[in-house]
């Protein structure tokens, strides 16, 4: 018990004796009222201890060798600042970078799968349309093989014969090649220009003052006509070759049309029916597969691919979280801004997980904690109630504050039931130190 608390108790006892003596000769009514007034005016007084606003003992979550100290005892640190670091942190940072890259790649793959969903759906729809067309074509082919229309084959043969007649008559040459009259006209021009060139040459031999350009002009004109004639002749030859090819193609078409007509007149054969039926089965299977593919992508990305992409992303997220968690276990962080009051670490030391090695305190405010309020006294205290604190080391300094918490759990001390009460001080003094004893007077 502090000296100040003992003095207060002695003072209260003296006051009680004086009041009792003064009331000895009074009336019964006066005797019953005086003690009640004194009791109401008495304040609850308790001993306490000065504490920082908050403090904590820190420990690593993993064991290992101390690689780096980033703060010293007495240093002020900010919230989440690294105080110390164990070995292997660089290796874990590399794992974090690798996991981060994989997470980025997995996210991009999922985004790409989502972005290409529309393209995949359109491609699948086109595949279904093409497959349907294939089925229709195969059905028509099977029907034509099973029930051939003789008149259709007869018309195809007639058309092929007409095409052969046109090819044999030289219509192709007339369309794509020069006519004989055009070639004859150019040949006549060549003869005329050749004769003109001879005349100019004869005149040049007997004329000393003639213009020499006349001979060059005559020669150029003849050369141009000869080039034109050569071009027309080549065109005519090419047209003749094309006509010959057209005749051969037309003859082949006639032959095929005749074969098809003869086959149709003979009726379907097992080989052609088997081939046509097989083509229809293939076309139908292709359509079924195309529909299945469309079902997978019509509502978005392929279900299996989407599940795989999401699983990859989840795995990458979990790997990154695990790597970060492992790295965080090798670092000791300040949970709040404060001052390092003890630092039991050296570089190269081995530490065990959970062993307290650093004490961090927040001296931005002060709290007085008293744990000796009995069950008789605690009922007179309420949260928010004002209190005055006097430190034993600073008896002339009165520090005001307010009750911030009253413990719900009791403790039994020396046969008394006691409760812990905390008072947050609104006043401060530069000489205040953690752990100082104090006397707290709770206001009425």
3D architecture notes:
It is a single chain. By secondary structure, the chain is α+β, with helices and mostly antiparallel strands. It has four domains: 1-42; 44-87 and 335-442, Efflux pump adaptor protein, beta barrel domain (Elongation Factor Tu (Ef-tu), domain 3); 91-116 and 303-328; 120-292. It is 57% helix and 21% strand. The chain has eleven helices and 13 strands. It has helices at 3-22, 28-41, 89-115, 117-146, 150-168, 171-176, 180-206, 213-266, 270-297, 303-328, 375-378, and strands spanning 44-58, 64-69, 76-77, 82-86, 331-333, 338-343, 350-351, 358-374, 386-391, 394-406, 411-413, 416-425, 437-442. The strands form two sheets. A six-stranded antiparallel beta barrel has the order 1-8-12-10-9-13. Strands 5-4-2-7 form a four-stranded antiparallel β-sheet, with no helix packed on it. A hairpin with a 2-residue loop joins β11 and β12. The two termini are 23 Å apart.
């Amino acid at each position: 018990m502090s000296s100040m608390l003992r003095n207060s108790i002695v003072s209260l006892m003296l006051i009680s004796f004086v009041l009792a003596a003064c009331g000895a000769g009074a009336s019964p009514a006066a005797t019953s009222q005086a003690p009640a007034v004194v009791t109401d005016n008495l304040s609850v007084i308790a001993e306490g201890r000065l504490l920082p606003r908050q403090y904590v003992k820190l420990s690593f979550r993993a064991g290992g060798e101390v690689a780096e100290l980033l703060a010293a005892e007495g240093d002020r640190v900010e919230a989440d600042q690294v105080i110390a670091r164990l070995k292997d942190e660089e290796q874990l940072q590399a794992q974090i970078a690798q996991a981060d890259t994989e997470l980025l790649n997995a996210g991009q793959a999922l985004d790409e799968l989502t972005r290409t969903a529309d393209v995949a759906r359109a491609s699948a729809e086109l595949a279904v349309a093409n497959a349907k067309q294939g089925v229709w074509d195969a059905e028509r082919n099977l029907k034509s093989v099973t029930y051939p229309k003789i008149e259709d084959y007869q018309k195809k043969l007639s058309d092929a014969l007409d095409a052969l007649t046109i090819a044999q008559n030289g219509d192709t040459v007339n369309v794509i090649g020069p006519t004989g009259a055009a070639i004859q006209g150019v040949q006549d021009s060549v003869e005329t220009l050749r004769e003109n060139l001879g005349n100019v040459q004869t005149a040049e031999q007997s004329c000393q003052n003639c213009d020499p350009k006349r001979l060059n002009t005559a020669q150029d004109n003849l050369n141009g006509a000869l080039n034109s004639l050569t071009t027309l002749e080549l065109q005519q030859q090419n047209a003749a070759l094309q006509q010959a090819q057209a005749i051969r193609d037309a003859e082949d078409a006639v032959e095929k049309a005749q074969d098809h007509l003869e086959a149709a007149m003979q009726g379907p054969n097992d080989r052609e029916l088997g081939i046509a039926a097989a083509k229809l089965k293939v076309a139908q299977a292709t359509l079924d597969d195309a529909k299945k593919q469309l079902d997978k992508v019509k509502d978005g990305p392929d279900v299996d691919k989407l599940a795989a992409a999401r699983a990859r992303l989840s795995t990458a997220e979990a790997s990154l979280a695990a790597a970060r968690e492992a790295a965080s276990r090798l670092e000791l962080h300040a949970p709040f801004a404060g001052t390092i009051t003890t630092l039991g670490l050296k570089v190269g030391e081995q530490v065990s997980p959970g062993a307290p090695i650093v004490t961090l305190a927040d001296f931005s405010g002060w709290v007085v904690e008293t744990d000796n309020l009995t069950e008789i006294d605690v009922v007179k205290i309420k949260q928010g109630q004002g209190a005055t604190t006097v430190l034993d080391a600073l008896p002339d300094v009165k520090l005001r504050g307010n009750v911030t918490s009253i413990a719900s759990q009791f403790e039994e001390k020396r046969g008394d039931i006691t409760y812990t009460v905390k008072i947050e001080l609104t006043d401060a003094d530069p000489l205040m130190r953690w752990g100082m004893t104090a006397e707290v007077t709770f206001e009425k």
